[in-house]
Amino acid sequence: MGIAEAALHTMPGAFAAHSPASNLPLGADARRRKRNTNLVPNARALQGLLKIPRLRSTRRQCQRIDDLARVTEGNGNWVKDAMNGASQVLGDVSVPDQAVGGNGGLNGNAVKPPPQRRKTSSVEDEAWELLQESMVYYCGSPVGTIAANDPNDSDPANYDQVFIRDFVPSGIAFLLKGEYEIVRNFILHTLQLQSWEKTMDCHSPGQGLMPASFKVRTIPLDGDEDATEEVLDPDFGEAAIGRVAPVDSGLWWIILLRAYGKCSGDLSVQERIDVQTGMKMILKLCLADGFDMFPTLLVTDGSCMIDRRMGIHGHPLEIQALFYSALLCAREMLTQEDGSADLIRALNNRLIALSFHIREYYWLDMQKLNEIYRYKTEEYSYDAVNKFNIYPDQIPPWLVEWIPPKGGYFIGNLQPAHMDFRFFALGNLWSIISSMATAHQSHAILDLIESKWSDLVAEMPLKICYPALENQEWKIITGSDPKNTPWSYHNGGSWPTLLCSQWHVSR
C-alpha cells in the first residue's frame, strides 16, 4: 500500500476488520500534568453531570487514555446529554434516510499486523530517520511530530509545535509502516484538547473547536523545585499570527481518525463514547445555522493551510473539499443510535447540496469560460443564469491564454460578484481523492496539470497556488506581507507535501 491507497482509504467504503476493544499500550508514567482551560473533562470531572469546570489550575497525574474511556462508558447520563446536545443540528431536513454510518455486521480482530517491510532506498531511510527525530513525546508516549526540525533555527516560533494539519501526512506515513501507536495517541490526545465549553466572549474558542497546534511543556511543580510535570499547551489561535482560529483542524482530525481505523483495523477508537461525542461537536460547529445562504463553509483569511492573509476569505476551495471529505468519513463512523438520526439526515442534506454547488459553480474549463464572457448582470429571479452576479470584466488576462482546450479545474473561491480564478493545488487534488469532483472533472484536472506541468511543477514540488500575486495586487491583498512575496511560501510557493496527493491522483 502506498500513500495513494492510504489517502483513498480515508473515504467511505467497507471496513476490513472490526475491533471490539483496543489493546494498544500508551505507556504513561507517574509524571503529573496540568490541564488547560479548554481541555476535555478528565476522569474526575466526568463524574459530575454536565459540569465541565475550568481546569487551568488543576494538577492531575498522567493517565492512560484507555482509563478515561472506561470512565466515560460508566457515566451514561452525562454522555447521553452531551451527545444529544451535539446532534441538534439544522432541524428537520427533507432528504430521505440513507443506509449510512456505523460498523454493523463487521467482525474481526483488534489490529491489523504491520505491513511487510520492503527494501528501501538510502533516501527513504534518511527520510524515516528525519521523521523519527521530529517525534514529540508526552508522558513517555509519542503524540506527534513537530512542524519543522531545523537545528540551525534558534527561534522556531511555533514551528516547534505539533500542528494537526501538518501531522496528517506524517500520520499516513506511520500508518503505512504499521506504526499505529503514535497516530492513535495523537487522535486521542488532541481530542482531550478540544474546546468543550460554550463561550460568550470573543477571545475564547467556541465549543467543538480543535486547536491548530499544541506543545509539550515541562514546568516545575508547586512546592518542589526538583519535581516537574508535563503539560499539553494547545493554541486555538490566541497566540497565532493574525489571531485566527483554525477551521481545518477538526476536519483533518475526522479524516485521520477514519484512516487509522481503515489501516489498523482497530475500530474501537472511533466507537469510543468520547470520540463519538467529539466528532459530533465538530460537526455541530460546521453545520450550525448562520447568516450564510450557501452550503459551503464561510471562513476568514488564514484559517486553513494558507494561514496568512492571501485573499482567500469567504468560501475557499480547500475548506470545502476537506469539509466534504470529513462529512463522508463522519457519516460512516457515526454509531447508529437515537441521538444520531438528526445528525445523519443533516449530513446527507449537506453532502448533496455541497457537491452540487461545487461541481456546478466552482468548475471552470474553456466552455464555462465562454459562458462567463456572455453573462448578463443584475439578473433577478430564481431562474437567473448568473446567480452570483459575476461581471465578465473580472476574468484576468492571464487566464484566457493559460487554460488549455482540454482540461479544467475548480476555482479557488466564489462569492457574490467575485470569482477567484487562481488554481489551488490542495483543493483540486483533494476534490479528486474525496470524489467531490465527478469522474469527468477529475480527469480534466489531471489533464490540466499535465498540460501546465512547467507552470505548476517544473523542477520543484507542486506549487500551492498559481499564479502568484505580484506588484500592486500583492500589496493590497496580502498587506505587503514580506513572508509571502511572489512565488514564495503561500504565494505560489512549492510544497513537497502536495506531491503525495498529486502522486495518488495521477495513478
UniProtKB/TrEMBL annotation:
GO terms for molecular function: beta-fructofuranosidase activity; endo-alpha-N-acetylgalactosaminidase activity. Belongs to the glycosyl hydrolase 100 family. Invertase that cleaves sucrose into glucose and fructose. Keywords: Carbohydrate metabolism, Glycosidase, Hydrolase. It comes from the Eukaryota. It catalyses: Hydrolysis of terminal non-reducing beta-D-fructofuranoside residues in beta-D-fructofuranosides. The keyword Transit peptide does not apply. Its EC number is 3.2.1.26. This is Alkaline/neutral invertase.
